[in-house]
Specification:
By secondary structure, the chain is mainly beta. The protein has three helices and 49 strands. The strands form eight sheets. A nine-stranded antiparallel β-sheet has the order 36-35-34-33-41-40-39-38-37, with no helix packed on it. The protein has an eight-stranded antiparallel barrel with strand order 17-18-19-20-21-22-23-24. An eight-stranded antiparallel β-barrel has the order 25-26-27-28-29-30-31-32.
């Protein structure tokens, strides 16, 4: 779309000569040709008759009033590198003059014209010139944009007038609705397009208005800004369709007192746009109400939202299963099925997705230790683990260690980063800080020479205690997106003795479009020789995994298990316990801890044990929430619910049997008309349920 400028009497006709110059010389973008009514017809080409002197930019050059343009000269035949002399005819000034460059500053009057001429010193017959025309400063002429509807294609246009093209558009503040992008569609027009979506990949959200400010900068760096709003009509709640399932899980709220106090939580999942993750905190009143909280959440599609307020409700049944609804300050709401343990901690899965929309994912929450946090001292040694996707959406994870002093400065930072099978050992520095939201923040600045795929990672941290924090990466869209946790190390340094004995291991990864999992026991002797005996589950089915490793423990707690391809790395939190990071393309992450002492038998399991799936390692996985009631004599009953690509479903109440052989690391559970289901024994209070196939996520349950 052209912009017509009245330049005085007799200047209402379009500048035919200017149009010809722009078309022939292809200066639409370099010189800023717009439909100005220019009173002169530039005939110079910017090149001298002999072709040895060239001035850039050339032809007719637009200059915003009072702004500057840099003028450059090249001389192809110039003995002694003598360059050119400069001359100005007309208003404005030439400054910073050298033999090959000068700065032109335009006059303060629109429609003024000037000519810059350069003459070769070695050959004074070689002369080139450029014409300059003063134009008003740029202005965004559009002031409104149409509203949109979730899931419906959107189109809106914003125009700029005056100024000198090319133009560079950006958002100076605020955010576009999720699903909406912008692109320059002509010299002076910007088009907004896409289809609005619910924030965070949710399937339901209320009508909401998004406020933002567009900024345009022209070639002279003149800037214009304009505020806009887009009102997006939301969707209705999906809870009605799942009412029967929700009512069963909620169980009348008879056990709501299990959730009482302040909690920190984290979440990770996938929707059709890619990965989404969150960390936050809230307060539960023990009567079914979440009376307030904050969340920092981020997604591949929409970037990060920080310090977003929330409230909600919950209902927990006698079997420790329940439903929780969170209502966020941006108008979105999300439904979760959850399993609560006796200590008030819980695991949960999102429970409102469909086959084509919404998020399938899982999370966990832990009760915050108020006394510990009241005397929180940051200084100490920490290990961390983060898992998610890189800037291209491929599986990525990192584990590492660092030291923090009393002022929050990090030192001695080192991380192992696995980006789709490419391993990097990356030094880093950074800092901890207390944020205004009450959460903490951290910045990890990686050595760029390490090529770790991360230049600077920014984390939002929500503390569980003085020794544990949940973390979510909150960098801008287009950066790696990961979620995980940070733990304080229990020892100042570690030795080979810190990594001996029998450790239970569980890890999950994703490669080749399918999930990879291991469940087993790692035995390491005093010499560092280790043997992993595990069950391995992938899209190809279950198999046995036996591997030999040679452990090497550094003082900072990093335990390498040899140089063989695929050998995992462990970062110790305490002796015989820590984060596991795989080194092959499946990018496995998980946890290792010492196997419980004493004899484990059927009698070791008695009472209700509930839990939910661990973070999904990839898309299209089914998440589960379950509750088991063990009688201590070999009989177990179970129920639960699932959410995945096929929607939500309630699992039937089943009566089965269980058995534990002497020295076994797996419990065997047999349900009617089903093959025996193994459960990895972490202790008499905690199990990891091995799923029936790789399309289901492993389930962590505890008493």
């Amino acid at each position: 779309m052209g912009v017509s400028v009245q330049a005085g009497i007799g200047r209402r006709k379009w500048g035919i000569s200017l149009w010809m110059v722009c078309v022939v010389a292809c200066w639409m973008w370099t010189s800023g040709c717009q439909n100005y009514n220019v009173p002169i017809a530039s005939t110079n080409t910017g090149t001298s008759p002999g072709g040895t002197v060239t001035i850039t930019p050339a032809g007719l050059i637009f200059v915003d009033v009072g702004r500057t343009r840099q003028m450059l000269v090249t001389v192809t035949s110039d003995p002694g590198q003598q360059g050119v002399t400069w001359a100005l005819s007309g208003p404005g000034t030439l400054t910073n003059i050298t033999t090959t460059s000068a700065t032109y500053t335009g006059s303060m009057t629109a429609n003024d014209t000037a000519t810059v001429t350069v003459t070769g010193v070695a050959n004074p017959t070689e002369i080139a010139s450029a014409s300059l025309y003063m134009v008003p400063l740029p202005k965004i002429t559009s002031t409104t944009l149409p509203g949109g509807t979730v899931g419906t294609n959107y189109n809106g246009v914003v125009n700029v007038a005056n100024g000198s093209a090319p133009f560079n558009w950006s958002i100076s503040s605020g955010n576009l609705p999720p699903g909406i992008t912008f692109a320059q569609s002509s010299l002076t027009s910007l088009t907004f397009e896409g289809a609005p979506a619910c924030p965070g990949g949710a399937t339901t959200c209320a009508t909401q208005t998004y406020n933002f400010t567009m900024q345009v900068a022209d070639v002279t760096s003149a800037i214009a800004k304009q505020s806009f709003s887009i009102a997006v009509t939301g969707t209705s709640s999906s809870a009605t369709g799942n009412s029967a399932i929700l009512k069963t899980l909620a169980g009348g709220g008879v056990s709501n007192a299990l959730l009482l106090g302040d909690y920190a939580f984290r979440f990770g999942g996938f929707n059709p746009q890619g990965m989404t993750a969150a960390a936050g905190s809230f307060t539960a009143d023990g009567n079914g109400n979440i009376v307030g909280g904050l969340v920092d959440r981020t997604g591949v599609a929409g970037g990060a939202q920080r310090g977003l307020g929330l409230t909600g409700t919950y209902s927990i049944g006698a079997n420790n299963l329940g439903v929780m609804t969170l209502d966020f300050a941006d108008g979105t709401n999300t439904i979760y099925a959850m399993a609560v343990s006796a200590d008030g901690s819980a695991r949960f899965i999102e429970f409102d997705a469909s086959a084509t929309a919404g998020t399938n994912g899982s999370g966990d929450m832990k009760k915050q230790d108020a006394s510990s946090l009241a005397t929180l001292k940051t200084a100490g040694n920490y290990v961390f683990q983060l898992a998610g996707v890189d800037s291209q959406g491929a599986r990525m994870a990192a584990a590492g260690v660092f030291t923090v002093n009393d002022s929050g400065a990090m030192s001695a930072g080192v991380a192992d980063v696995n980006d789709a099978g490419t391993m990097t050992n990356a030094p880093f520095t950074g800092n901890f800080a207390q944020s205004t939201s009450g959460a903490r923040s951290a910045e990890l600045d990686f050595d760029p020479k390490a090529n770790a795929g991360i230049v600077s990672g920014h984390l939002s941290l929500y503390p569980v205690s003085a020794d544990e924090m949940f973390a979510v990466e909150t960098d801008a869209a287009g950066q790696p997106l990961m979620v995980g946790s940070i733990l304080r190390q229990s020892a100042a340094s570690f030795t080979s003795a810190s990594f001996t004995g029998n450790e239970v291991v569980q890890a999950t990864g994703f490669s080749g479009g399918e999930t990879q999992m291991i469940f087993g026991l790692l035995s390491v002797d005093a010499t560092g020789a280790g043997v992993l005996s595990a069950a391995q589950l992938s899209g190809g089915g279950a198999s046995e995994l036996n591997a030999n490793y040679a452990a090497s423990v550094s003082a900072n707690g990093r335990a390498g298990l040899g140089v063989a391809a695929g050998a995992p790395i462990v970062y110790l939190v305490r002796p015989n316990a820590g984060f596991v990071l795989g080194t092959d393309a499946s990018v496995m992450v998980g946890w290792m801890q010492a196997q419980g002492t004493g004899t484990i038998s059927a009698a070791s399991f008695s009472g209700t044990i509930a839990g939910a799936s661990v973070f999904p390692a990839g898309p299209a996985m089914t998440q589960s929430v379950v509750s088991f009631a063990f009688d201590g004599k070999g009989t177990v009953s179970g129920t639960g619910a699932t959410s995945g690509p096929d929607g939500q479903a309630l699992l039937p109440i089943l009566q089965g049997t269980y058995s534990v052989g002497s020295g076994d690391i797996f419990m065997s559970v047999t349900w009617p008309l089903q093959s025996p289901q193994p459960m990895l024994i972490v202790s008499g209070r905690k199990l990891i349920v091995v799923p029936p196939s790789a399309s289901y996520a492993p389930i962590a349950v505890q008493q």
